[in-house]
């Protein structure tokens, strides 16, 4: 009998790639907020914010073998000015999920961020480096990590700037849409991340679960590059005019501070799973070779 996987937030970018990665080996169950997301799989309506009192009953009734929570506020600046909302979704509800997962003895998988670091390190961050978040978003995600890792058989995956063909691949879509229209954009040169192909995250998770590895892992692409450099890569690979991309710096343009160096070292995960995450060129090539195109996202 197949194991049962519950994905909270199946419509998300990461959620959609987890579905594709796990669908042949697990019975997939999804939660949705307003509208069912994929008719091929069993689905339950669950709004974590509005129906918090139903979290325990929904999960207990499904009794999944693994629970994956992809739901979070993606807007760092929103969290900086909406502390109560960020704390509720990232911390309080995480505590609820950890409690019910512990009750049914099933691992919880949580996705965290490079924003738990202050960005002052000159090389990539490892799991052993000191955390010191600059933003309220980072603080709430770090607090959630601590709650989850109190239970040995849970998984926290820190990742950054996730991309692929998907309506919620925000930075990639924003760049490609504007360049396709011939519109100029600005991109930061003073914030660097290890942009991560979404499919690499889902495959890494599959390997971890299959091999019974739990704990904290960095799961990010190999190439450390600024948003400007990332935008240039997109223009190069998809044949758009690089002159439309104007370099700028982030100073005084964002409500929340970000780490200048948000690059993550995934050596621990790669060593355990024997899976090598993509560099930026491999990621771009994967998108080019996909059956999807830019028209699938914008038309």
Short key terms for the protein model shown above:
19% strand, globular, 299 residues, 7-stranded parallel sheet
Structure, described:
With 299 residues, this protein is α/β, with parallel strands linked by helices. It has a single domain, classed as 3-Layer(aba) Sandwich (Rossmann fold). It is 39% helix and 19% strand. It has helices spanning 13-22, 55-62, 76-81, 83-103, 136-149, 170-181, 198-210, 227-238, 267-273, 280-289, 294-298, and strands at residues 3-8, 26-32, 42-45, 66-69, 108-113, 155-159, 162-163, 185-188, 192-194, 196-197, 215-218, 224-226, 245-248, 261-262. It has a 7-stranded parallel β-sheet with strand order 3-2-1-4-5-6-11, with helices on both faces. Strands 12-9-14 form a 3-stranded mixed β-sheet. Strand 1, helix 1 and strand 2 form a beta-alpha-beta unit. Helix 1 packs across helix 7, helix 2 runs parallel beside helix 4 (83-103) and helix 8 packs parallel to helix 10 (280-289). The longest helix is centred in the N-terminal third of the chain and has 21 residues, at 83-103. The termini are far apart.
């Amino acid at each position: 009998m197949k194991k049962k996987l519950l994905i909270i937030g199946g419509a998300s970018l990461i959620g959609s790639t987890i579905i594709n990665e796990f669908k042949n080996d697990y019975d997939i169950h999804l939660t949705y907020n307003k509208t069912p997301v994929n008719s091929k799989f069993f689905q339950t309506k669950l709004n974590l914010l509005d129906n918090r009192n139903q979290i325990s009953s929904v999960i207990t009734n499904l009794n999944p073998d693994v629970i994956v929570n992809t739901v979070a506020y993606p807007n760092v600046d929103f969290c900086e000015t909406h502390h109560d909302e960020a704390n509720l979704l990232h911390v309080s509800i995480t505590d609820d999920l950890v409690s019910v997962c512990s009750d049914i003895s099933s691992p919880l998988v949580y996705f965290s961020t490079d924003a738990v670091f202050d960005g002052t390190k000159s090389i990539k961050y490892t799991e052993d480096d000191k955390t010191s978040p600059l933003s309220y978003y980072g603080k709430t995600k770090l607090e959630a990590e601590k709650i989850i890792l109190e239970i040995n058989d849970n998984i926290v995956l820190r990742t950054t700037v996730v991309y692929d063909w998907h309506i919620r691949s925000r930075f990639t879509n924003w760049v490609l849409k504007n360049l396709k229209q011939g519109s100029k954009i600005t991109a930061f040169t003073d914030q660097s991340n290890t942009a991560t192909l979404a499919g690499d995250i889902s495959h890494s998770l599959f390997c971890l679960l299959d091999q019974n590895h739990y704990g904290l892992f960095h799961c990010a692409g190999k190439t450390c590059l600024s948003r400007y450099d990332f935008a240039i890569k997109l223009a190069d690979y998809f044949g758009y005019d690089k002159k439309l991309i104007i370099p700028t710096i982030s100073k005084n343009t964002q409500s929340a501070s970000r780490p200048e160096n948000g690059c993550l070292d995934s050596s621990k995960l790669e060593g355990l799973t024997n899976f090598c995450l993509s560099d930026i060129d491999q990621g771009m090539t994967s998108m080019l070779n996909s059956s999807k195109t830019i028209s699938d996202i914008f038309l």
